[in-house]
Amino acid sequence: MEFDHILIRYGEMALKGKNIKQFINKLQHNVGQKIKEFPDAKVKRTQGRMFVLLNGNDPKAVMEKCKKVFGIQSLSLAIKVENDVEKIKDAALYALRNAEDVKTFKVSVKRINKDFDVRSQALNQMLGGHLLSNTEGFTVDVHHPDVEVKVEIRKEATYITSSIVPGLGGLPVGTSGKSLLLLSGGIDSPVAGYLAMKRGVAIEAIHFHSPPFTSERAKQKVLDLAKQLTKYGKSINVHIVPFTKLQQEIFREMPDEYAMTIMRRMMFRIAESVCRNENILSLTTGENLGQVASQTMDSMHTINEVTNYPIIRPLVTMDKLEVINIAEKIGTYETSILPFEDCCTIFVPKSPKTKPKREKVNYYESTHDFTASINEAIEGIETIKITDKKEIEESFGDLF
Ligand code: ATP
Ligand code: MG
C-alpha cells in the first residue's frame, strides 16, 4: 500500500468572490506545471476539492514541489480505496504508521455516501480499535490529537488522509499581474521578489551589471537567485543591463555626494523602459526604510521622482533579521551572502547625501546629457530566461 493522492486545500481564495474561478483555475494550472516532470502525475478537481493523482510517483518528492505553490493553505497525503470496511481499515493503519512525529491520534469518519451501510460513529470506533491493536506506542486523544486520521466515504470511493502539511498561503502566481523586480545580488531583493510572488504577482527581473568592475560570477549569482525564485512560480526572464559606461559617466560628471542618488534614478528610468517594452505595470525592489543612506525617506522621495509606475516594496517596514529569516527559509540566503561585488558596492561615493533633494538632483542632471548612454544601456540589454529545470534554457540576446 502507498499514498496515491495529495489533497490540496486552498483557503484565502475562497474569500475572493467573483474571481474565485479564475484563482482556482490558475492554482490548478500552477500545480500542474510544477508536477510536469513526474510522468503520469495529474492534478484534478472534483466537488470543490483539488488533488494530485500520483500514479506511482514518489509521494514525498511530489509533495515537496506542491508545497512551494502559492495559493495552497495545506496539503495531505491520501489513499483512495474501495468502499469496503476491510480495505478502509488497512488504509487507516497505513496512514497512521506513516504520519511523522505522532504519539496521539483520533479517527474522524465522514459518511457522505449514505448508501454505505456502517454508520460514522460505529466505523469510528471500529477503526480506532483496529489502529490501537495493530500498533504500539499510540494513544487516542479526541481533543488535541497529534494527527487526525480522516476517513471520507464518498460515492465513488473512500479517501483516507493523515498529517496536514501547511502550505505557503498567498495567491496563485499570475493572478495579480506582473512586476519587474530590481534584483541585485544582495539579501533583500530576492526576498522582495518572493513576497511579491506570494501575492500572486508574476515577476521578471532586471539586473544592473558593471563589467569588468563586477565579474561574471557576480552575474551568475543573480541568475542563481532568480533560479531559486522560479521554484515558487514560473520561469523568470532576467534582463541584464550593461551599466558600466553610464555609471562611470555619472561618477565622473556628477558631484560625488549625489552620484548614488542619480545612479538609482537611472536604474528606475531604465527599468521603467523595460516595463514599457514588456507590458509590465510595476516595479518591485528590496528597499527598506532607514537601512542605508540610499534608503532614507528623502532619498526615496528623490529617487522615486523619475517614475510614476507603482513600486512594490515588500520589505519597507521589516527589520533586517526578519528579512534574513525569510531568505533562509526560501533558500536564497546562502547564495546572497557569497562575497561577489555588485555595482553599488564598487562605486561607493565617500559621503553620499543622506537627504538628497529633488531640486538639487534635477539641477545637476540638467547640466549633462545622459541620453546617449541611457539608450546604449537599454539597447545592450541581454535577456536570459531562467526556468526551474535546466541551467539556462535560452538566451535571446538583444531584445530591443
Ligand atoms: P539588496 O540586499 O537587495 O542588495 P540593499 O539592502 O543592498 O538591497 P540597496 O543597495 O540600497 O539595498 O538597493 C536597494 C534596492 O535597489 C535593492 O533591493 C534592489 O531592488 C535594487 N538594486 C540595487 N542594486 C541593484 C543592481 N545592481 N541591479 C538591480 N537592482 C539593484
Ligand atoms: Mg545590495
UniProtKB/TrEMBL annotation:
It is found in: Cytoplasm. Residues 60-164 form the THUMP domain. ATP binds at residues 182-183, 207-208, 264, 286, 295. Pathway: Cofactor biosynthesis; thiamine diphosphate biosynthesis. It comes from the Bacteria. Keywords: ATP-binding, Cytoplasm, Nucleotide-binding, RNA-binding, Thiamine biosynthesis, Transferase, tRNA-binding. InterPro entries: Rossmann-like_a/b/a_fold, ThiI_AANH, ThiI_fer, ThiI_N, THUMP_dom, THUMP_ThiI, tRNA_STrfase, tRNA_sulfurtransferase_ThiI. It is an enzyme of class 2 (transferase). One of its GO terms (biological process) is thiamine biosynthetic process. It catalyses: [ThiS sulfur-carrier protein]-C-terminal Gly-Gly-AMP + S-sulfanyl-L-cysteinyl-[cysteine desulfurase] + AH2 = [ThiS sulfur-carrier protein]-C-terminal-Gly-aminoethanethioate + L-cysteinyl-[cysteine desulfurase] + A + AMP + 2 H(+); [ThiI sulfur-carrier protein]-S-sulfanyl-L-cysteine + a uridine in tRNA + 2 reduced [2Fe-2S]-[ferredoxin] + ATP + H(+) = [ThiI sulfur-carrier protein]-L-cysteine + a 4-thiouridine in tRNA + 2 oxidized [2Fe-2S]-[ferredoxin] + AMP + diphosphate. Belongs to the ThiI family. This is Probable tRNA sulfurtransferase. The gene is thiI.
